[in-house]
Amino acid sequence: MDTRTPGGAETLTPLFNPRSVAVIGASSREYTIGNRIIRNLLDMNYSGAVYPVNPKDAEILGKTVYPSVGEIPGPVDLVHIVLKNTLVPGILTQCGEKGVKFCIINTAGFRESGPEGIALEETVVGIAREYGIRLIGPNCQGIINADPAVNAYCNFTFTRQKPGAISIFAQSGGVGEVINNRLCELDEGLRMYVSSGNSCDIRCEDVISYWADDPGTRAIICHVETMADPEGFLRTAEAVSRKKPLLLILPGYTDEGAAAARFHTGGDPSNLSPEGTNAPMPAGNLLFFRGIEEACQAARAFVHLPLPRGNRASVITNTGGAGVICADELIRGGCTLPLPEAEAARELSEILFPEATISNPMDVLATAGPGEYEKALSIMLQCDNVDSVLLNFITPFFVDCDDVARRTVALAKESDKPVVCVIMTDRNLWKDTLAIFREGNVPVYSTPEEGARALAALTRHAVAGT
Amino acid sequence: MDTRTPGGAETLTPLFNPRSVAVIGASSREYTIGNRIIRNLLDMNYSGAVYPVNPKDAEILGKTVYPSVGEIPGPVDLVHIVLKNTLVPGILTQCGEKGVKFCIINTAGFRESGPEGIALEETVVGIAREYGIRLIGPNCQGIINADPAVNAYCNFTFTRQKPGAISIFAQSGGVGEVINNRLCELDEGLRMYVSSGNSCDIRCEDVISYWADDPGTRAIICHVETMADPEGFLRTAEAVSRKKPLLLILPGYTDEGAAAARFHTGGDPSNLSPEGTNAPMPAGNLLFFRGIEEACQAARAFVHLPLPRGNRASVITNTGGAGVICADELIRGGCTLPLPEAEAARELSEILFPEATISNPMDVLATAGPGEYEKALSIMLQCDNVDSVLLNFITPFFVDCDDVARRTVALAKESDKPVVCVIMTDRNLWKDTLAIFREGNVPVYSTPEEGARALAALTRHAVAGT
């Protein structure tokens, strides 16, 4: 049996929806990984049973401790192993005898640490295959399923979670944490999370294939720095991209970055990033991001906005300078900026100030109020030659900005074209205006380049899918 | 007399340190530009005299109103004109008779609006030259000098200001506002600000040349979208760069962006950005930024950190994935990553955990505590083959992060090499840790790519200057 074949929709279900989680190497000492995982599961109200395992204690955080996995009374779907690397093969055999389905090996000291570690990792994989156990790790954080019906926080880190629609795969736990944390700051919710370290068995390909068929996942952020099979990864990524937006961050494209990746997760860098000089295959229609921030910002657009039907964007702005920046970024990102059709231009000339620029970008001027903004947005959304709108709004003190926000949100919600909003403002003084967008579920961007890059990503994904 | 020659250190002093400011077109109506400028000057405690001018009112916001500029009793260094475009020539003549030194023409409807506007702008420039008045604008916001001894907020916008060391030139007022606002959010102070719109007289070149000799300016952010003389701009920019870090944002490099820039500020796009396909001259050693956010983040490093003596960077991290991203970004930004010298490597091997990676990036592991971090940083700062350190720190729950912060700040402050700190954390849970960096005047970055790009900018500037 080749357990490395990417799984179908069923394969990983017990991993993300375990009926029970055992922690082998559970600890009563605070500030240890074997304590923190249990605390996280309890704090997050995990829906299943929690079984601490160690030979010493009777109880940890109010939970009965079992001396070994074999002595746990009920079935065990998922196990964390946090013991020393050399103890892992024996423990894994016990898990196999117990009928455990999935193991997260948090412990380090495997492939990334040299020849002995490589041999140990091979032994561990062999035992897992013998018993049909699927592995996450070693040298990893674990998984999270933030679905409120499950709340499986099988991870020793700290990031708060809010249920949502973005799933994160990050080979590096640190990078995964930063992505998760940044999404929290941006008030975006998490769906599922995997940080798989050395990825000796379950790999990125398996996880993203599973999420491609998960109805709760609207966008996937995927960070990989080493991969066993770059061409296979590309094929999987392309298949996943046809079902879900897949936002790729693939560092290690310089020689120095690649060397660091080898030390870190012990494999070969992919060299798939378009930033890399030796990329063996063209990037195709995949979405690559150079940084964490850019990927997080784009993911927000995929969660909240419909996809455009084409690459023709219209920019509406009350400050010309932002329009110039948007134009550059949209063109560079593969969009076009068609001029308003004759009939639309005529209508616009009747409602906008005479000094307004009826072009694309359209500058409605800083004096434009709720009426001008509403009509301009409404006309552009109805144009046949417009697939998406990027709306830039700097909040002037002499305009009823809350009303602009209310009308924008109303139009954006009823349109089947995406409206990406850039709100250039002081977050403290225009708090109420921003709250209207947030409550209306319309993501706002702070700078024109950020909004334009998010719309370009939305467009690239949508156009690639046609 | 050619008033367009870039000014020396003295030339613009009365603009930024006016003894008095008159607002021609002052208004008693709230939410008008002619009211807001006066309110801003009073709110910000401007040190000089404020003279509202209009033929109707006796008093505005407690200040005596004068019917014309000629009737103001004292000398007038700086005038705002907020009246209709066709009235500007007559008003400017009155200013000339009064002996006014500088005029900010906020009014739009000049070069950017077509042939009549071009002619009107030429008339206005002619009158200004006749009387030796220097002009900011037309079609602009104005200027700010945030020096607490002056507090000249000659601008109709809203951004709070804190005195600091970054000066901002932005042709677009909207872009200038976003930059200013973002720096406020980042708790960075402003030195001086100019948004000059059509720039019919005083241009970017004049302003940045003045700031190059301003002891209070440590870094200049400069946004220009159209310029009369790109080659002259480049020469000035290179001269300024030899004195001060000059962070350039030059949009309008696509055909569509260029067209938008022509509508907006009525000139020709520069095509100087390295992003542009038609850039006529190589970028040389100038610092170009593709976005507002990236420029703001780099400016912070220039304000708070010493310059490196060379391009050899050392990365210390407790999470390998961040190290890979840093390595990529530093190499791409022109840095090198030398391996630790033999003696340093030996010392490190004695103090770090055996599983740590003694390389560059150096992975001290998540379990590294204050002692390990302090020693690793101290050793790298003392290495002859290291010019700068990028320190990545994800805040583990089992480490005394406050102590790591205290020791890092202490070492960073006593070193003459820059230490760029990336702190990957939850801002709410690790508030105290972040406060230690803030109080220690050490800028922190949230993502590895952001910190690495800032260090790369610091390095490019420093190396270009040698």
Describe this entry's structure for a reader.
The structure is a homodimer. The first copy, chain A, is of the alpha/beta class and about 475 residues long. In chain A, about 40% of the residues lie in helices and about 15% in strands. Chain A has helices spanning about 15, 35-45, 90-100, 115-130, 175-185, 205-210, 230-240, 255-265, 290-305, 320-330, 340-350, 370-380, 400-415, 430-440, 450-465, and strands at about 20-25, 50-55, 60, 65, 80, 100-105, 135, 140-145, 150-155, 165-170, 190-195, 220-225, 245-250, 285-290, 315, 360-365, 390-395, 420-425, 445. In chain A, strands 9-8-11-10-12-13-14 form a seven-stranded mixed sheet, sandwiched between helices. A five-stranded parallel sheet of chain A has the order 2-1-5-6-7, sandwiched between helices. In chain A, strand 17, helix 13 and strand 18 (about 420-425) form a beta-alpha-beta unit. The longest helix of chain A has 17 residues, at about 115-130. The model of chain A is unreliable at about 1-10 and about 275-280 (pLDDT under 50). At the A-B interface, helix 5, helix 8, helix 10 and helix 15 of A face helix 5, helix 8, helix 10 and helix 15 of B.
Topology of helices and strands:
The structure is a homodimer of 466-residue chains.
Chain A: H1 13-16, E1 20-24, H2 33-43, E2 49-53, E3 59-60, E4 63-64, E5 78-81, H3 88-98, E6 102-105, H4 115-131, E7 134-136, E8 142-145, E9 152-154, E10 163-170, H5 173-185, E11 190-195, H6 204-212, E12 219-223, H7 230-241, E13 246-249, H8 255-265, E14 287-288, H9 292-304, E15 313-317, H10 320-332, H11 342-351, E16 362-363, H12 370-382, E17 388-394, H13 401-414, E18 419-424, H14 431-439, E19 444-445, H15 448-464
Parallel strand pairs in A: 1-2, 1-5, 5-6, 6-7, 10-11, 10-12, 12-13, 13-14, 15-16, 15-17, 17-18, 18-19
Antiparallel strand pairs in A: 3-4, 8-9, 8-11
Helix pairs in contact in A: 3-4, 5-9, 6-7, 9-15, 10-15, 11-12, 12-13, 13-14
